[in-house]
Structure prediction request, 78 residues.
Amino acid sequence: MVAIKDEFIVFIEVKTRSAGAPLAPSQSVTARKRAKVRRLGEYYCAQHTELPLQPRFDVVSVVAGAGAEKVEHLINAF
Prediction:
């Protein structure tokens, strides 16, 4: 997901897990995935030079299930 917030262009990785999963959703954003999102962000910025914004990489973590829904937004996660 891509968003603009203030002076930032924000690239957001969204991860969802069921309640009771052994890992939090944000913990499943591996080094490989972070590198991929960074490359995509760099490409996007190169293609949209009309947006002179600072890139930022966030993670939104969603835990869903049986009344235990929880959303966590990690700003500048990597």
Notes: The two ends are 15 Å apart (CA to CA). The helical segments are 31-47. The longest strand covers residues 8-18. Residues 13 and 61 are 9 Å apart (CA to CA).
